[in-house]
Each structure stands twice: as C-alpha cells, then as structure tokens.
Specification:
The complex is a heterodimer of chains A (about 140) and B (about 625).
Chain A lengths: L6 E6 L3 H10 L8 E6 L7 H9 L4 E6 L11 H18 L7 E5 L5 H18 L8
Parallel strand pairs in A: 1-2, 1-3, 3-4
Helix pairs in contact in A: 1-4
Chain B lengths: L13 H9 L16 H13 L5 E5 L2 H14 L7 E5 L1 H5 L5 H21 L6 E4 L4 E4 L3 H12 L4 E4 L14 E2 L4 E2 H14 L3 E4 L2 E9 L2 E8 L14 H5 L3 E3 L8 E3 L1 E2 L11 E2 L9 H5 L12 E7 L1 E4 L3 E3 L16 E3 H8 L20 E8 L14 H15 L4 E6 L9 H10 L3 E4 L2 E6 L6 E7 L4 E7 L1 E6 L1 E3 L3 H7 L26 E3 L9 H21 L1 E4 L4 E3 L9 H5 L5 E4 L2 E4 L9 H5 L5 E3 L4 H13 L2
Parallel strand pairs in B: 1-2, 4-5, 4-16, 5-8, 16-27, 18-25, 19-20, 19-25, 20-21
Antiparallel strand pairs in B: 3-28, 6-7, 9-10, 10-15, 11-12, 13-14, 17-26, 22-23, 23-24, 29-32, 30-31
Helix pairs in contact in B: 1-5, 2-3, 5-17, 6-7, 6-14, 10-11, 11-12
Classes of the chains: A alpha/beta (about 140), B alpha/beta (about 625).
C-alpha cells in the first residue's frame, strides 16, 4: 500500500476556512490527506502548535491565511503568522526538519480553486520529501 | 452526527464514524441522524443531553456558517451553555470534496476528534451586556447626513450633526433641478435643511470636523473641532451691511469660482445656519464689518474650540468631490477657456447663480448657442478611475434638456461611451432629452482647446458609430468628471472604517448589510460608499438611520465572551501581548496585563505570543489547540 502523508492544515476561519467551504459547495476535489483545524486568525497560531504537530508525527503543516496587507479580519494577524513561520522554518532546518514541510499561503474566501491547488501541490511536495525523519509509518 | 441525506452518508461511512467517535476520550454518547437540523434531529440532541446528563456537545454536519446557530439554540434549549458546544464541517470539508469512502471516513473521524479535544477544554461563558448611549453622531451635512439625522431625531434619538463647511446642504444645494422629475433642488432640499435645524433633538455644528474618536460601539467619545465663524448666529439679521463694506473679494466656493464673494459672506441665501461667516483665511482684520454691524454680531477675535460629545453610534456621510480635472490636461479645463465641470454648469443654470440662470460663457459673457457635453471624464478610464460614476449619464441628459429649453435655438451635443439609464423613469428621461434635439455621439473626446482667434471651444473626438473623426466648434464645453470619495484617510482611520483603494467605505456585506462596516456601531450613508444619485443616497441614509436606531433603541449590545483572559499569577508583565494586540485592548496594571473585554475582539494573537502562557483566548487556550493537534495524530 502506498504511503499517505499525514498533514495538518491550520485555516483561518475568515479566509482559507471560508474558501474550503466554497470548495465544498463547488464540489472541487482535493487530496484527503490534509486534516483542517480552524483557527480564529493565523495570528493565533503559536509556534508550539506547529512544533506539536511535527512532534506527534505530522509530515507537513499547511497554514492558510488572509492576503497581506489589508485582508486580515483582525488588522495584522497575517503578518504575525508570516514572521513566526519565517523564524520557525529556520529553526526546523536547524533541527533537521526540511523547512518545506511548513508552508504558509494567502488564500482569500473567494479563492477556492487556489485552496485546492495549494493543498494538492503541498501533498505532492510532502510525498516527494517522504515521511518525517525518513522512516515509513 | 448528521447524514445530510446522502450528502454526507453517500461518501462517509457514518456508522463507522459513530463507532470510532465513541472510543474518543470523554465521549459517552454518539449517534447519527438523517437530517440533524430538522425538528426531530434537534430533539435527538436535546433528549440525549438530558438523558445522559451531557456537559458538552459536538455536532458534525454541514458547516457552522450554515447551522452553528441552529444547534446552539438546541443546546441552549437542552439547558447547556452555548459555549460548551462545537460544530465541525464534515460535508464542505470532507464528503463534498473527496470520493474515496475509506479516506473520507477516516478524515471525518479526525475532524470530529479535533472538536472533541477542543470541547474537553471549553468552559461556559455568558455574553456581557453593555449599555448604549442613546445619541448618534452624523458626520457630513449633505442630503444623506440631513436625512439620517432627521430620521433618527423623529425616532426620539438625539443627534449631533457635524458639517465641515459654513452651511449644511452639501452638493445638492448647488444643483439647479434634479433628474428625472426636474424638481428644483432648492425647493426640495431647503425645507429639509430648515427642518433639521429646527428639530429640538438635532444639534448642528458647522465649520466643524471630527478631531478624535475613542471608545467602542455604544460609547464613543468624540472630540469635535469647531473653527471660528466670526459672527454670532443668533444675533445676525442678514442685513448684509458687513458684506457691503468688506474690502476683500475672493472667488466663491459655492459658485465654484464663477463669481466673487467678500471675506464676510453668506454661502447662499438659504444657508443653514442662516448667518454670515468670516473667511479668516482672507480677512485682513480691517474691522469695518465690526463697526457697521447693527447687532454687534461680528467678532473677529473668536477662537477655534474643541468640544466633546459621547454617542452610541456614528453615521458617516462625507459625500463626494469631483475628480480633479488638472489630471486631464488634454481637456483644457478652466472657466477662462470656457471648459467647465458639471457643477459649474448647475450654477450657470441656477436662477440664483452667477448669471441668474442665463447660459453665458464664463470667459466673456457671450450667450451660449452651441454646447458640447462630455461624459465619463476620468470615469471608466484605466488611466484615471476604472469605475462608473453612475450619475453622469442622467445629469448630462438633464443638462442637455435644460439647456435646450433655456436656449430654444441652441444646439447640444453629448459624447458618451454607453448611456446607463437604469432607474425608474431614467430611460424615458434620456429619450426626452434626445427628442428635444440633444445629439448623442458615441465615442471619446481626444482633445479640447480654446481657439484664441475665434474664441471657440474646439472639441475633437471620434464618432464610433459613423467611424470618423469629429470636430465641433462650440461656445462651451461641459465635462462630467468622475465621482471621488470625500472621506479623508485620517477620519477613516479614527473611525476604523475599512476603505477600498478609492477611499470609498467598504460595507460589511455588499448585499445583506449595505450600510454597516466591520467596526461595530459605525454606519455609512450616501456617496461615501460609492457614487450615488439623490434617491439612492436618501434610501441609504434612511437605512443607516434605521440600523443605528436598532442599536440605540435596544439600549444595549451583547458582546461575545470569547476574549482573552490573564492568569495574573503567571503574568510577568513583559508587555509582549500589549505590543501584539491590534486593538490596544491590553494594558499593564500593577505590573500585570489586563484585558479590556469590551475592546478585545478575540483574535488570539496575544495567546500565540505570550512566552509564559499567562494570557489565554477563552475556549481556544493553548492547551486546547495542542490537544486538537494531538487528537488528529492519535486517530489511526
């Protein structure tokens, strides 16, 4: 049986989460390896949440937030997420986790096709990287 | 868990999900139903809560945006607090986007596992009720602001009306007659101006601007800066002695530069407040007006003052300006060139205007026989304004018609891209102008210039329908400039009104909530939202007043309790949360963070930032978030 990656997606409820709803209503198809967790704002995503996902065996973490500069429902949570992800990618590299396993994308509520594209391309990328730490789960 | 007919159950193995969910920690009851949102479905939840003495509920169904409230009500009916209930989507997020039954089933279990994990940390909360100050502020005294203020006052709500200029009335006061009925603008506007000024519940501040805004919905503290008028309104008898002796003459704003006024003047005869005003920018302080005033109403020493008001709601009705025509140099705009804008033409048509209603050239006073109207000047032009300014097709038809009635042997030409006459009686009105002899030419104008030898205004354009260049030598060219927002950036920021790239206010929902913006307690009316004609502005102003009244008459607002809270034992006062909060809702009191629950919007940025885990977003605490992550990974 082919290996399926385990991926957690943190979607902002105002943009990427709403886009995921539109994707559903439009019956778009995407890879089921991604499990969505809705957050009030990407600014709420703490570094620990991302690290916890990797510690518990996630092969990738996807974050979908509102476009910079002005789309954030809470003024600038997207910028906070951007800074944290930027730093965390460097830290992940330091501890031997490929930084590509963490991805941040801006997906507005109207961009369901983009959401589908992002999810599928992220799953493809994680498939190429293989399981976290190299071992097959 | 809901089947949603076959919408969910067709792809997800519902029975298997229920069995797996029963194994999750703290789950004592799990069941499925074909349509959970129906009456029997809701009863199922209510009975389960009672029978099994449940202290939390997870609903896995369509999506919270559709039925969160439905199940929240059911949960409350069962005697539980709505904040110990979670709803997750397994339709939009799962069954509708996947085809593989095994994988979709597994994903549904994982999604439900996150909700169960979150629910285990959820606590009950009550919504706070905040008192609302029963008073409104209306910014802008044009037709939209006047309408909104009067409407609120008639509902018994006190209103503060703030107007930047010396009189209320706005742009409408400059108009001659209005389409499509040709009512005289003054005849329908000035009675409203008088009525709003007379109303005991309306306080009007002219020459006034909002200086600062603090607070939140229900209780805004507003500082209003009032420039000196130099004339005591209650003592001015409008005798005009002051005006006659004033030695300073400057161009009149109200006539848009087509006439002169003195440094002490009245904008127009029916101005409200009905009093003269000193133009302190041009006044040379000679004091002649002070000497001649029979009631000693003139005071050149008056100073600017700032007053403070508290209101519960704010209506923004700042209106529009015309697109600056200096930006289109190829049209040689300027009265000296006999190329004028549409508001100047309104003044020329007006019997109170600079020519007493006779259509004469501004440059030399020669009677106008041939006039060219140019629509879409700046509008629908990628180099200027990409949008349609909506009203120009109609007022140009009106201008052409009024001109031809005024000058029976005259000729009127109209350059247009498309005639947009969508409105009751609008198409018929354009037809009427055409039947009166207005010649419509489909095409754009490339250049306008003044022929210095003959004095003619030369309009060069292209006739698309005849596919040829066209040159018209006319006495006057009237441009229809695009409508731009008069809302300034500082005011938008003070009121937290979201704006688009053209400074038009962005409504919260363009269809369902057209007069509300994202900041609670702020409403919009008129051209601040986008180009609009008078009927639309009045309709929107009435709607804004109704929406503001909903809030003010109810007397309180309910605040979502899902805000941040601080564990004072853990907090070390590092201020990281203070810096990160977008609303300034956190302050350090006695060395520890304190959250203003009214101002906090519940984004959780502080929770993600706090280095010691002292500040937690209610029901989205860090430990809950981590549990949600672990829950996904635990499902095998």
């Amino acid at each position: 049986m082919s290996w399926r990656p385990k991926i957690i997606a943190f979607f902002c409820r105002w943009c990427a989460g709403a886009a995921a709803e539109v994707a559903g209503v439009s019956r778009l198809r995407y890879d089921p390896s991604v499990v969505p967790i809705i957050v009030p704002c990407t600014g709420r995503i703490s570094p620990s949440m991302i690290v916890e996902a990797f510690l518990n065996g996630a092969d990738g973490v996807l974050i979908g937030g509102c476009h910079t500069p002005n789309d954030c429902h809470y003024v600038a949570g997207n910028f906070k997420a951007f800074k944290r992800v930027y730093l965390l990618k460097k830290l992940l590299q330091e501890v031997g986790v490929e930084p590509e396993r963490l991805r941040l994308e801006w997906i507005s509520a109207t961009e369901a096709p983009k959401l589908v594209k992002v999810v599928n391309s992220f799953v493809d990328e994680i498939r190429k990287l293989g399981p976290l730490g190299g071992k097959h789960a | 868990m809901c089947h949603c007919g076959v919408n969910i159950a067709g792809t997800v193995d519902v029975k298997k999900v229920v069995e797996e969910v029963k194994k999750l920690p703290d789950v004592v009851y799990a069941a499925d139903y074909v349509y959970l949102c129906s009456q029997p479905g809701q009863e199922l939840i209510i009975n389960a809560v009672k029978e099994h003495k449940l202290d939390g509920v997870v609903v896995a169904a369509c999506t919270p945006s559709l039925h969160y409230e439905t199940f929240a009500k059911a949960v409350e009916k069962a005697g539980l607090n709505r904040y110990v209930y979670e709803m997750v989507s397994i339709r939009e997020f799962d069954s509708w986007v996947h085809a593989d039954r095994a994988l979709a089933t597994e994903k549904a279990i994982k999604i439900i596992a996150t909700a169960v994990a979150k629910l285990r940390g959820d606590k009950p909360y009550e919504r706070a009720r905040l008192d609302v100050i029963r008073k409104a502020l209306v910014v802008g005294g044009g037709i939209a602001g006047i309408t909104a203020a009067l409407s609120l006052a008639k509902m018994g709500i006190p209103v503060i009306l703030v107007e930047k200029y010396a009189t209320i009335g706005g742009k409408m006061a400059m108009l001659h007659e209005t389409f499509p009925t040709l009512d005289c603008a003054q005849c329908i506007l000035t009675p409203l101006m008088a009525e709003v000024a007379r109303h005991p519940l309306v306080k009007i501040y002219t020459l006034a601007e909002v200086d600062s805004v603090e607070g939140h919905v229900g209780k805004f503290k507003v500082k209003i800066k009032i420039r000196p008028r130099g004339v005591r309104v209650e003592d001015c008898r409008l005798c005009g002695f002051c005006e006659r002796v004033c030695p300073i003459s400057v161009s009149s704003e109200f006539d848009r530069g087509l006439s002169k006024r003195k440094a002490i003047y009245i904008p127009f005869a029916q101005a409200v407040p009905s009093a003269y005003v000193v133009d302190f920018e041009h006044c040379n302080r000679c004091g002649l007006c002070v000497k001649v005033c029979p009631t000693k109403a003139v005071n050149l020493e008056e100073k600017e003052r700032v007053i403070e008001e508290e209101v519960g709601a704010i209506i923004v009705a700042t209106g529009y300006e015309l697109y600056p025509l200096e930006k289109i140099p190829e049209y040689s705009y300027g009265p000296e060139n006999d190329v004028i804008d549409s508001l100047q033409f309104e003044r020329i048509l007006s019997v109170q205007g600079p020519t007493r209603g006779e259509v004469k050239r501004p440059s030399d006073g020669k009677p106008v026989k041939r006039v060219v109207f140019i629509q879409c000047v700046g509008s629908r032009d990628v180099n200027h304004l990409p949008y349609c300014s909506k009203i120009c097709c109609m007022y140009t038809a009106k201008h052409a018609l009024l001109f031809l009635e005024n000058v029976p042997d005259g000729e009127a030409y109209v350059f247009y891209i498309d005639v947009r006459a969508a409105g009751k009686g609008f198409e018929e009105f354009v037809k009427r102008a055409q039947e009166h002899g207005a010649v419509y030419i489909k095409g754009r104008v490339s250049r306008i210039y003044k022929d210095k030898l003959t004095g003619d205004v030369v309009v060069e354009g292209f006739d698309l329908l005849e596919n040829r260049e066209i040159v018209i030598r006319a006495d006057l060219a009237v441009l229809a400039p695009g409508i731009v927002s008069a809302l300034d950036k500082r005011l938008a920021e003070m009121l937290k009104v979201p704006v688009d790239q053209f400074m038009f206010a962005a409504e919260i929902h363009p269809k369902l909530r057209p007069v509300e913006v994202a900041s609670a307690g702020i409403f919009i009316a008129g051209c601040v939202q986008g180009p609009k004609d008078i009927p639309d502005s009045i309709a929107q102003a009435s709607a804004a007043a109704a929406k503001a009244a909903e809030l003010l008459i109810q007397g309180y607002v309910e605040k979502e309790p899902i805000v941040a809270e601080v564990d004072r034992d853990k907090c070390n006062g590092c201020r990281a949360c203070v810096t990160v909060c977008p609303y300034g809702a956190i302050e350090i009191v006695e060395g520890k963070a304190r959250v203003n629950e009214i101002v906090c919007e519940g984004c959780g940025a502080c929770t993600a930032t706090c280095p010691v885990g002292a500040i937690q977003l209610r029901n989205y605490r860090e430990e809950q978030a981590l549990e949600m992550v672990r829950a996904v990974m635990r499902v095998r």
